[in-house]
Every structure is written in structure tokens, then in C-alpha cells.
Amino acid sequence: MNVSKITNKIKNIKITGRGIYFFSFIMYFVISFLRTSTYTEVVSSNQLVRITYLIALLLIFKVYFFDQQTVKSFLINSLVILIGVVIWRSTHAIDIFLYMLFVISARDINYHALIEFYLKIGILMLVFMVISSGLGIIKDLVFIRNGVRRHSLGILYPTDFAAHAFFLVLAYCYVYFRKLDWKAYLSFILLAVFLTVETQARLDIISILLTIPVIWIAKRASEGKVFSKFMASFYWMIAPILAYITVLAAYFYNHSKPYIFADKIVSGRLALSHTAFQKYGVSVFGNLVQEHGFGGNAGSKVFYQSGMGGKYFFIDSSFMRLMIIYGVITFVAVIAVMTIIGLKSVLTSDYRLAAIMVMLAISCVIEQHLLDMSYDPFLIALFASEITGHDRHENHDLATLEV
């Protein structure tokens, strides 16, 4: 191809709001994924974070110059952005601000196409991390618990690797919802076996296995099966119920037998959440919380020096992170978003997003990944166009990535 043809192609590139959004999403997803890996010892995490500032500007540019605006939507978007900036500055966590921007700028975005991108790139990234760690390019951090070796396979911590796998399973269920069969469910079971052998991340493994009946009921409900429709009609309620139970249990935690038993089931997360309540309390716009986890090279050194005790302090539950770190406004807003997405899915008799919100809520009790785009892109569905299956072919222009 000669230079003139290349020049003409560049001149003919059409910049669209959808193109800006997909470019920003893919760029941010890859950056966020790298930040969860031991590649952070090769590529500076701070440099990756700086790139997210550019992504934030691109999304704000899309909102104000490409999205159709009324006076009402202009004021609401501006208020959300302002609140996002305040929370970002209060918590020193830009990820919450980026996630808010991705949600409000998702209007007219083909959500099905977006999750397809997430699924394909996510699988490639996870396999890339496994191969990189296997070849010794990056570290495979190994943690020993009860004499069993737990591999992180290039990710910062074994449970984080399993969490990546869990969210990719949810994405697969969303994209191929109509085609799910026993072969897909068997592959989830085999994945759970692999994760058991390599990571020993039992709570994430249970979540993957629990996905099978939850999605199966949702699929049958979408096909009009009466009992399944009845069961799935309650899916939208799970997020607020589990959020309420999690926060109350953490607040009132004591050393009575029921609480100790519950804390043991969730691997000590309940006691740590109670400590977070005592130490930081609750604020409107969030707190700057000092955490000391076992992830990464520095965390693994702490683990081998002090074991599970020592300086370890980390709020694993996403529900508790929303309340303690990001503040009451964010907590209420995110639970409302999860509830609305689930309810809309039930009312349209599709049920796939309702089922995913169920599994997301269960994950929020034990995992911290709700507002991390490298794991969870599902809250973007609030304003995005949920074009799936047959509809996607009739609206092919929405799935086309124009830049």
C-alpha cells in the first residue's frame, strides 16, 4: 500500500462518540488488567495511572460533545462528574471516577459488543499472564496455606486470578446466553477444578459453580418456563438484600458463636470489616483508607514474614468498600444501579443481566472487585443499549467500531 492511500485512509477516518467510547474502554481495560498483574514490576503502575487521566478527558469530551443533551441531562451529568471528582480527591482512588464516567457516557453504546470485546481481550490477557509467568518473564507468586501451594499465575494474588476467571465466566454467560448447554456448564466445572489445583481460591470457585444453577434458571425463565420465571423474578432483589445483611453483620460483629462461625465461612472478612467500621467510620464522600494486603511482591514478603496475622488489613467485601472507602452516596448509588439493572432485565423477560447481578452481589460479599473495570464491566449496562442475539444483526451499525 502506497503512502497516498494510507494518507487518504487517515483523512477518511470518522471520529464518533461510539469510537471514542470503545477506544477508551479497551485502553482502560488493558491498563487496569496490567495493574492487577506482576507486570507492575516491569511497567510502572504510576505511569499506567497517568494514562487514565487522558481516558477520563476522552469520556468527558464524549459526554459533552457527542451525546445528545437536554438541559436536564446536562445538569445531571455535570453533577455526577462533580461528585465523582470530590470522591476521587477524598479517597485518592481515580478508578471510581473513571467507572462513573464509563456509566454515564454509555448511552447508545452496544453493550453486547462491549462485553464481547471484554471477553475476548480478557481471555487473551489472562492466558498471556499465565504464559508470561510460566516463561519467567514475570513472577508467579506462590503462597503456602496449610501446606498447600497457591499460585497467582502472573496476577498479584491467587484469589485475584480466580476472580478474573469468575468474571470472564459471567461475560461468557452474557454473550452466549441463548447457546448455553451442558458443554458450557461442564467447562465451568473443569475451570473450577483447575482453579482448585492452582489457586485454592475456594470462595471464587464456589461462585463459579453457583453461576451454573443461577444462569440455568435465568435461561429457562427467558424461554417461558413458569417455575423458572417465578424464581428469576426475585433476582433483582438480591443485591440490596445482601448489601444490607453484609453491612449490618459487619457493624454488629462480636465474638459470639454465630458471628465467629460466619466469619470463618468468609475467611475472616467479617472481623476485618468490623475493624474498618471502628477505625474509619462512615462519611458522605469516602475516606482515605490505609490497607496492607498480601498482593504483589511486597505483599508476599509480608506474608512470609508474618503469616496471615502481622500487618494484614484489607477490606475484601465490595459492599463494605463502598460504605467505608467510597462513602454513603456511592454505596446507595451503586446498590441502586445494580437493582435497576436487575429489575429492567426481569421486566424485559431476558433475565441474563438479572442473573449476573445476583452473582455480582454474591461476589460483593467476599470480593473487592466491583468498581474495578479489569474485572467488572457490568454496571455499564445501566444506560447502554442492550442489543443482543438477533437484534444485533438488525442493528449492525451499533456494533461497528468507528473511530
From TrEMBL:
Tagged with keyword Magnesium: no
Transmembrane segments: 20-36, 48-67, 79-105, 117-143, 155-177, 189-218, 230-253, 319-341, 353-371
Domain of life where this protein originates: Bacteria
Statement: the UniProt record of this protein carries the keyword Disulfide bond: no
Keywords: Membrane, Transmembrane, Transmembrane helix
Name of the featured protein: Polymerase
Provenance organism: Limosilactobacillus mucosae
